[in-house]
Specification:
ABC_transporter_ATP-bind, binds adenosine-5'-triphosphate, Rossmann fold, disordered N terminus, 24% strand, alpha/beta
Length: 263
């Protein structure tokens, strides 16, 4: 088990499903993202961890194609996608479910937008209600669900957009602490089962360690990658691990990197 810190260096490879190369972004002349490079292999879960306001959402918007980088490259599935939307599913803190549509109609929106019939879209979505903890709630409206269930529905919709990649932007940031912990445990198991590639941003160290294969720590803005850590914990992971030595060791190291801000 190698738990030593890995200084950030480009691990760009041809087999990457997501690759960012020297991405720079600023607003009104002020740099927010200051040359970030990273890559994810298929099936890998990478968490970007950084202080509030360091540019995590800005970076996710760039990967989702909601904004253009000022310079650098964003390549998804081998194609340059700088500023092009529609390549990946992107989930926010807010569930953004349509309140007038039932859960089944909400989660199948990506498939319907791709031109699939209602029957076909529902046939594909139906078996996922179990794994996403929503079995029996297909015909409910979002307002009839708990906050955690709404986030699971939003996550399912993101997954149905493109099953091999998900972008998660502080997916549980708006939930109360207990619900957040439950969903972190659940997501950690689900991701392993789905074998999907996940790029996630968070400012919650436990969340990053519980869910990710690798964690990259971002500095304050203008943000850079300070350091990269492999998470040396076996899967499946569970909440009990947060008290274990391996978990605490990596948490202490990440915490000290965050605190030092790269100084
Ligand atoms: N469209 C925009 N125009 C001007 N400034 C922006 C814009 N979007 C983001 N910023 C600035 O970029 C910086 C980073 O914002 P961003 O939301 O990406 O940070 P964050 O790390 O996601 O924060 P948090 O953890 O609080 O959600 C902030 O200072 C913000 O004011």
């Amino acid at each position: 088990m190698n738990s030593s810190p890995v200084k950030h260096q480009s691990s760009l490879g041809t087999e990457s499903i997501i690759r960012l190369s020297e991405v720079v972004k600023g607003f009104a002349g002020l740099d927010v993202i200051d040359g970030i490079s990273l890559s994810l292999k298929r099936g890998e879960v990478l968490a970007l961890l950084g202080p509030s306001g360091c540019g995590k959402s800005t970076l996710m918007h760039l990967v989702a194609g909601l904004d253009h980088p000022d310079s650098g490259e964003i390549v998804i599935g081998g194609e340059l996608v700088n500023g092009e939307t529609g390549r990946v599913g992107y989930m926010h803190q807010k569930d953004l479910l349509l309140p007038w549509k039932r859960v089944m109609a909400n989660v199948t929106i990506p498939l319907r937008l791709k031109g699939m019939s209602k029957a076909e879209a529902e046939r594909i979505a139906a078996p996922l209600f179990g794994p996403f903890g929503l079995e029996g709630f297909e015909e409910y409206y979002p307002s009839q669900l708990s906050g955690g269930m709404r986030q699971r529905a939003a996550l399912m919709r993101t997954y149905l957009y493109r099953r091999d990649i998900m972008l998660l932007d502080e997916p549980f940031g708006a939930l109360d602490a207990i619900t957040r912990e439950r969903l972190q445990d659940w997501l950690s198991g689900l991701i392993s089962a789905l074998n999907t590639t996940v790029l996630m941003v968070t400012h919650d160290i436990d969340e990053a360690i519980l869910i990710a294969d690798r964690v990259m720590v971002m500095s304050e803005k203008p943000s850079r990658i300070l350091e990269e850590e492999e998470i040396p914990l076996p899967r499946p992971r569970s909440r009990e691990m947060v008290m274990e030595d391996d978990f605490l060791r990596v948490k202490r190291r990440i915490y000290s990197i965050l605190r030092s801000g790269g100084a």
